[in-house]
Write a structure and sequence with these properties.
With about 260 residues, the chain is an alpha+beta fold. The protein has a single domain, classed as Jelly Rolls (Sandwich), CATH 2.60.120. The chain has 7 helices and 12 strands. A 7-stranded antiparallel beta sheet has the order 1-10-7-12-4-3-2. Strands 9-8-11 form a 3-stranded antiparallel beta sheet, with no helix packed on it. It has a two-stranded antiparallel sheet with strand order 5-6. The radius of gyration is 18 Å and the shape is globular. This is Phytanoyl-CoA dioxygenase.
């Protein structure tokens, strides 16, 4: 628990309960990548399927015919993070099915060189919930995720576009979020343009926090703090994955209160 608070992430070992959940979830995850309803999620020359909210799980995390999501990671979230209502009053969101393929990232039509270089060289690092809007792509706080839970559902090598994060960055961003929003009514947070401040704090994080990558196998999982700067690395030289590519299910359930997003540790 102390390690998670300080580092902003932790990893969980193999868990039979989670492995059983994957057995039921994997066929549904595989179906998303060929479903015409989700074709819009292909990016970067077809090297990344973003798959946002693509898994057809219910509020308990269960896919049709399968069990609710459970295991060490879920117990930790409920007990250590104080989210006992997860899966009840605080429903699981429909999981993202993030799939990477060899060659990620290729340039995308209409993308500037600066944006592509940031994805290639800085893993498209971002904090969830800070959305770019309008023609000028100004950032504003719009979503209030409780955490990021990554669940690999297939095997892949350590350099096959793993999840990356800047360790401890959740503390720097958390302090800045409180300085920025604490005296603003929560109903007006989405009106505040935080573009320049966000870029300044992100630069500070790049200069002061260690970038790490996280690899896990099916049955394992990793948890990241909601305020942490994170991204996805390019597909490495000689990286290996099966025909499914690098496929990970990500859960980011919403908190019931924006104030909790701001103030909870």
């Amino acid at each position: 628990m102390i390690s998670f608070r300080q580092k902003g992430w932790c990893k969980f070992p193999y868990d039979k309960h989670l492995a059983d959940w994957i057995d039921f979830a994997l066929p549904h995850a595989r179906a998303t990548v060929t479903d015409p309803a989700f074709a819009e999620w292909y990016r970067y020359g077809g090297t990344w399927f973003a798959g946002v909210n693509a898994l057809p799980n219910d509020a308990t995390g269960a896919v049709p015919g399968g069990p609710p999501i459970s295991g060490q990671a879920v117990d930790f979230i409920r007990d250590a993070l104080g989210m006992a209502n997860l899966g009840a009053d605080m429903p699981w969101d429909r999981a993202q099915i993030s799939v990477c393929y060899p060659g990620y990232p290729k340039p995308m039509d209409g993308e500037s060189k600066a944006v592509f270089d940031f994805r290639r060289n800085r893993d498209a690092a971002h904090v969830d919930g800070l959305l770019r809007e309008g023609t000028e792509r100004r950032r504003r706080l719009k979503e209030f995720h409780a955490f990021i839970l990554g669940i690999p559902v297939v095997k892949y090598s350590e350099n096959a576009a793993p999840f990356s994060l800047w360790e401890g960055s959740h503390i720097i961003f958390g302090n800045w979020f409180r300085d920025t929003f604490l005296d603003v009514p929560p109903e007006r947070w989405g009106e505040v343009d935080i573009t320049e401040g966000y870029q300044r704090i992100r630069k500070q994080v790049f200069e002061t926090c260690e970038r790490i990558t996280i690899h896990a196998k099916p049955g394992e999982a990793y948890l990241a703090h909601r305020h942490i700067l994170h991204g996805m690395t390019p597909w490495g030289e000689n990286a290996e994955a099966g025909p499914d590519g690098r496929m990970i299910a990500y859960f980011r359930p919403a908190l019931n209160s924006p104030t909790e997003w701001l103030l909870a540790s």
